[in-house]
Amino acid sequence: METHFFQKVKELEPLLKDTDADLGLIGAAPDRPSSKFGYMVPGEHAVTEQGMDYVRISHFAEKPDEEQARGLIQQSALWNCGVFAFRLGYIIQQLLDRGLPIQYEEMLRQYSRMEKISFDYAIVERAEKIVALPYHGIWKDLGTWDMLTEEIHTPLVGKGVLTDDSFNTHIINELDIPITVIGAPNLIVAASPDGILVSEKNASLRIKEVLSFGDQRPMYEERRWGRYRVLDYIKYPGGYEVLTKRICVTAGNNLSYQYHLLRSEVWTVISGEGEMILDGVASKVDKGDVIVIPAEARHSLKGFTDMEIIEVQTGSQLIEDDIVRLAVHWEEIIMIALGSEIH
């Protein structure tokens, strides 16, 4: 996108102030009919008192076929750039209407239990007062593999081999094992801890239709305190489960003060040092230490340095939602767990 796109972002605030709209968007003028983008159909064109051109949005059309896209362009429809501005009071009311908390800490505690739905579907497409700023310039939605790879200037990212006759094929490999592609043109081969995708590029946008395991456990996640990767999972006859993770807590960060109802854990510190709180008792931990955390035991960890831990979970139901967070920030954790303040 071009520099003046960012000027459009800055103009959203005065646009909302000068109109009665609840939401403000940016719409790119299409340069071709495409089935890869969502469209916004304008109801009327208008000008603010400060001379700013904008449109009121009538409705949305999500990724139509090319024939439908031509018809939408004839109606002066715009590509939805996915940039949202809104009045704070409007969003607060949306949260309250859904029975959701408006305080940050409580929202954080409940986040994992919230409905998995995009902002577009939950809010934008149901809003009644929406305005948009038209943008005339270069813009690309990088939400599909074929569009993303147009912006990646090397065909191989990560370990692998790609032969010269594999024209217009890209390998994106986040794994430690190499991928070899021979004589296979126009493919995207993407490998991560969560799975491996092999697709003809133009068909890659069908991935949401094909995937039927949307509730699969994430195998790699980045969190506010660091990251983790699932190393192994096994379920034994009778329902007993064992899950092994490699957890990295970055220096100065901490896990929340929490407990689990359905699982126990064993932590083995393989590098770094920090402070552990377990059932109201604080202790220093270092590489080589092993910590046993029974079910319902309240615990937290802060890294003095970057820390790596091998965590082995055991129980009858190993799910991410089996967590009760009592506090998030270290100062609050000390107050709750130890009954003292940090000086």
Automatic annotation (TrEMBL):
Q: Does Cytoplasm show up as a keyword for this record?
A: no
Name the source organism: Paenibacillus algicola
Q: Where is the Mannose-6-phosphate isomerase type II C-terminal domain?
A: 223-326
Isomerase keyword on record: yes
Read off the Pfam families from this record.
MannoseP_isomer, NTP_transferase
Molecular function, one GO term:
isomerase activity
What biological-process terms (Gene Ontology) are attached? Answer: GDP-mannose biosynthetic process; polysaccharide metabolic process
Annotated Nucleotidyl transferase domain residues: 20-151
Keywords for this protein: Isomerase
What name has this protein been given in UniProt?
Answer: Mannose-6-phosphate isomerase
InterPro entries membership: Man6P_isomerase-2_C, Mannose-6P_isomerase_type2, NTP_transferase_dom, Nucleotide-diphossugar_trans, RmlC-like_jellyroll, RmlC_Cupin_sf
